[in-house]
Design brief:
Number of strands: 8
Keywords: Signal
Strand order of the largest sheet: 1-8-3-6
Strand content: 25-35%
Largest sheet: 4 strands, antiparallel
Radius of gyration: 19 Å
Structural class: alpha+beta
């Protein structure tokens, strides 16, 4: 009986370890970007992540922001590959949804961009973000 309980417990632990490893996100390292004025998009991140599975969204998280205005982010590869740009929050993961065509394929070298509001003269504002191309 003790052997059966040990075997079941060990199997349960192995299942939990497997589930934990498959649900882990692959995050980029935190990168500092300059936010242009009047709603223009920043240059893309120098780091890129591969979208390795067919999924409808990834994440962007703002890790540092010293300004009070809202910031927005999107995914980029030669042009916007997300449906839109989404408001990103400090220390909070924001879902960035891919366009329907991009959700159905894997994509190498996905990058992220950020912008401020249309009414924000934010020239020189720097924020740091990290992102994951998969969910």
């Amino acid at each position: 009986m003790k052997k059966i309980i040990t075997t079941i417990t060990l199997s349960f632990v192995m299942c939990l370890m497997f589930l934990g490893s498959t649900s882990a996100l692959s995050w980029s390292s935190s990168e500092s970007l300059t936010v242009p004025s009047w709603g223009a998009m920043s240059s893309p991140t120098s780091a890129s992540k591969n979208k390795t599975k067919t999924c409808s969204y990834g994440y962007i998280e703002k890790t540092v922001d010293n300004s009070t205005f809202a910031k927005y982010g999107d995914f980029y590869k030669g042009g916007r590959i997300s449906k839109s740009y989404y408001q990103i929050y400090l220390n909070n993961q924001t879902r960035i949804h891919y366009t329907d065509a991009n959700a159905k394929k894997t994509i190498s070298s996905v990058k992220a961009r950020v912008c401020g509001s249309n009414y924000e003269p934010s020239a020189g504002t720097r924020i740091s973000i990290k992102f994951s191309a998969d969910n």
